[in-house]
Amino acid sequence: MMEQILIRPVLTEKATASAEVANRYTFVVDKKANKLQIKKAVEELYKVNVEHVRTMIAPAKRIVRYTKAGVMEGRKPSLKKAVIEVRAGETIDIYANL
Predict the structure, then answer these.
(1) Structural domain contains residue 60
(2) Pair 74, 96: CB distance under 8 Å
């Protein structure tokens, strides 16, 4: 069940800096998952104590590329992100499960 809620960690410069400085880890999660389900999934998968869960929904975006073959149009899907703050002194090794 945890694999269905947590889709993947976000590995950007901003997310990595937040993990190092403030003990906050960002994950892409299922759109239907609520904060309690996300908290339970992270605690079971990574064996940490979760203090706070913040969620946000990034809207879908239209993508246009100008190529030799002409204008290519597409869409990026919308997704839900969760920022997980774990208890002080605990860490999540997000690179272990990649």
Answers:
(1) yes
(2) no
Helices marked H in the chain — which ranges?
Answer: 2-5, 13-22, 35-46
Tokens of 64: 């246009």
47-98 pLDDT tens trace: 999 999 999 999 999 999 999 999 999 999 999 999 999 998 888 888 776 6
Per residue in 13-27, pLDDT tens? 999 999 999 999 999
How many domains would you assign to the chain?
Answer: 1
Q: Residue 69 belongs to what domain range?
A: 2-86
Specify if 68 maps to a domain.
yes
- pTM here is 0.84
Strand partners, 79: 58
CA dihedral 30, 31, 34, 39 (to 10 degrees): 30
